[in-house]
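Q: Given only this backbone (305 positions), what sequence would you predict?
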């Protein structure tokens, strides 16, 4: 194998993408022309957002590897696929594809998202070999909402987003983020982050169903129970947090348990949650409320340019 050339796929080169002859590319129900046309539409949409979405590795004129990524937001890139030609050193090709991303990712402050799931093992290995380092980790948990749920030990009152308005709601969320290792309230735009949550909720966003919980008439935190827009049975708590001055009183566990009950009342049967692995209080809440860890996400920082 000669020295590899890795570059971004260009329009009109769709056929290169499929020259690895991976059996997963073949669909007996579609002709080659239909397959290429569908890929071309996807290419136009995704590469228009950022040309680093589709990378091709070439040995001379022969395609020997490919990488497909997705920008989840401006600074988070998820590697959805890495494939290499059979009979060639996979790690060399994988490393070349990943290494191609490093200079611009370092310049633009972009992290690469992966996880400890078996299907991501090769990607994690390639990132590590090429100098990417884990910057943050997020623990994911889950549980069924069928059957008996944990009992909240606190009865909360609620103000809704519809009642207090967006400006006040975002202000409380910013205060509640103080001390969260994954959320730095001194960085970014809180209102833009809030808008991103609304967009994530999609058609199921309802400002009367996002809450500021009350104890004795005082706002003590934030609770955002949300069914996923693409599922009738799965949901999460987009945000659950206690204001700093009310921490240590058991409100976190009670708020989380209350959120699970609200989701169940909306017809959700499966809960998925997450937090930074350094957030020990939230990890204890998950454990106390019967939510075992399912996997860990890694946010890799590129090597310095």
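A: Predicted residues:
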């Amino acid at each position: 194998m000669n020295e590899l050339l890795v570059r971004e796929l260009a329009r009109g080169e769709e056929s290169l993408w499929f020259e690895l002859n991976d059996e997963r590319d073949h669909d007996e129900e579609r002709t080659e022309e239909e397959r290429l046309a569908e890929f071309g539409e996807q290419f136009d949409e995704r590469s228009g957002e950022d040309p680093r979405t589709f990378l091709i590795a070439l040995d001379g004129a022969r395609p020997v590897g490919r990488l497909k990524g997705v920008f989840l937001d401006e600074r988070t890139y998820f590697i959805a696929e890495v494939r290499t030609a059979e009979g060639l050193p996979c790690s060399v090709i994988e490393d070349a594809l990943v290494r191609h991303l490093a200079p611009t990712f370092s310049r633009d402050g972009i992290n690469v998202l992966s996880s400890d799931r078996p299907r991501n093992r090769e990607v994690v290995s390639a990132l590590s070999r090429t100098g990417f380092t884990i910057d943050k980790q997020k623990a994911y948990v889950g549980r069924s909402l069928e059957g008996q749920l944990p009992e909240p030990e606190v009865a909360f009152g609620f103000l809704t987003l519809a009642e207090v308005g967006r400006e006040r709601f975002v202000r409380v969320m910013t205060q509640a983020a103080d001390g969260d290792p994954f959320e730095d309230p001194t960085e970014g735009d809180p209102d833009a982050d809030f808008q991103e949550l609304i967009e994530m909720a999609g058609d199921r966003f309802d400002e009367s169903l996002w809450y500021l919980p009350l104890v004795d008439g005082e706002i003590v935190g934030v609770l955002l129970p949300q069914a996923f827009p693409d599922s009738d049975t799965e949901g999460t708590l987009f945000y659950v947090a206690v204001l700093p001055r009310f921490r240590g009183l058991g409100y976190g566990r009670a708020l989380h348990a209350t959120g699970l009950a609200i989701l169940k009342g909306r017809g959700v049967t499966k809960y998925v949650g997450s937090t930074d692995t350094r957030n020990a209080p939230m990890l204890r809440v998950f454990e106390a409320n019967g939510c075992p860890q399912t996997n860990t996400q890694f946010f890799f920082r590129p090597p310095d340019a």
